[in-house]
Specification:
CATH superfamily of the largest domain: Response regulator
CATH topology of the largest domain: Rossmann fold
Largest sheet: 7 strands, mixed
Mean pLDDT: 93
Helix content: 40-55%
Number of helices: 11
Shape: globular
Distance between the termini: 75 Å
Low-confidence stretches: 16-24
Radius of gyration: 24 Å
Structural class: alpha/beta
CATH architecture of the largest domain: 3-Layer(aba) Sandwich
Order of helices and strands: HEHEHEHEEHEHEHEHEEHEEHHE
Strand order of the largest sheet: 7-6-8-9-10-12-13
Length: 344
């Protein structure tokens, strides 16, 4: 009899423990991390590193991840469907905070929740303006804007030994695809005061033949080319398949008679020479810190000002730099090596 009573008490204890554990988990505040792109994309991978550096005390909150995958499916019908699906997830799960990353997540999802009293929004990786999504008039939105470190790009060009003896201002051209992100980048490039560098052309193209023709045309009367996004290039006007990024970069590197650099750190992973890019780690860290201010400290969202990216990364291919005679002070190589972004 005594043994049976002990078993009953033990069973009751286990049931109570399970119930309390379930209640505790259900009562924890929740964060939904909504990515525009896929988890294998280098930019997303590195933003997630930044997010996880800050979101390290997961016993205090729940963290869920959702990937819209619009970089690999950049067409309007897919984006609309992905946006509807993501909006339904938010409506059904009602997270306390949504960390929404990159412009597609804002355009197709988060702008529909402006001033929603049940959803607090922290954006990251936004190349356009907050006002483009109505965030400037929303009381439930904060975040961090992604801005190309153009002053660092300009400084880099001025530090190249071969450019110091040109006898004329360094002539720079810019090219990218027609994605939402690149449109934001192009606007930044056009507004920036490049002096003493001379910005000559800003081009956005849709197809692979257009890219090839423009690279050659721009190289003919410029000293360097700056590229940003190139993942939305379709094979031709009649073939809507996407050209693999590594193919784009390999062809561009092989056929451009002038050096090509990028404002995206993953450019060298794709086979490029040099990138001076916005830090994805900072984007993740700042967004996560703002989310914790909201859910753990009870800070009103409208009391958290929108931040602008301050940090940048250097990524470099030593062999391609040498082949181009693109000589820079050694601190650039040191920066790339420190960030484990130096490729032989």
């Amino acid at each position: 009899m005594k043994l049976s009573l002990e078993k009953m008490m033990m069973g009751l204890f286990m049931i109570v423990t399970i119930v309390l554990f379930g209640w505790y988990n259900m009562s924890k505040p929740s964060i939904l991390i909504l990515h525009s792109y896929d988890k294998d994309y280098a930019w997303v991978r590195d933003i997630n590193v930044g997010l996880n550096r800050v979101l390290s005390s997961k016993y205090l909150y729940q963290v869920h991840w959702y990937y819209m995958d619009t970089k690999r499916h950049p067409f309007t019908d897919y984006k609309n469907s992905a946006g509807i699906a993501a909006r339904n997830v938010i409506k059904e799960t009602r997270p306390d905070v949504v960390i929404a990353v990159d412009d597609d997540a804002q355009q197709y999802v988060m702008r529909y929740f402006n001033n929603d009293p049940h959803v607090k929004i922290v954006f990251a990786g936004v190349n356009n303006e907050a006002s483009d999504y109505g965030f400037d008039k929303a009381n439930n939105v904060t975040g961090v804007l992604e801005r190309i470190p153009l002053d660092a790009v300009r400084e880099t060009l001025g530090s190249v030994e071969r450019f110091k003896t040109l006898g004329h201002p360094i002539r720079l051209a810019y090219i990218g695809d027609h994605s939402e992100t690149v449109t934001g980048d192009a606007n930044q490039v056009q507004r920036f005061d490049w002096k003493p560098v001379q910005l000559t052309r800003v081009r956005q193209v849709n197809t692979w033949p257009e890219w090839q023709a423009n690279v050659m045309a721009l190289a003919a009367d410029n000293d360097a080319i700056l590229v940003s996004g190139y993942r939305r290039l379709v094979r031709s006007a009649s073939d809507m398949s996407l050209v693999p990024p590594k193919e784009v970069v390999a062809w561009t590197e092989a056929h451009s008679p002038v050096p090509v650099m990028s404002s995206n750190g993953f450019f060298t992973e794709d086979g490029g020479m040099l990138a001076i890019g916005t830090s994805p780690y900072e984007q993740g860290e700042v967004a996560a810190a703002k989310a914790l201010e909201i859910i753990l400290k009870g800070k009103p969202v409208n009391m958290l000002p929108i931040a602008i990216s301050q940090q940048f990364i250097v990524t470099m291919s030593g062999s391609k730099m040498k082949a181009r005679h693109f000589d820079l002070p050694r601190v650039y190589e040191a920066a790339a090596r420190t960030g484990d972004q130096y490729f032989p």
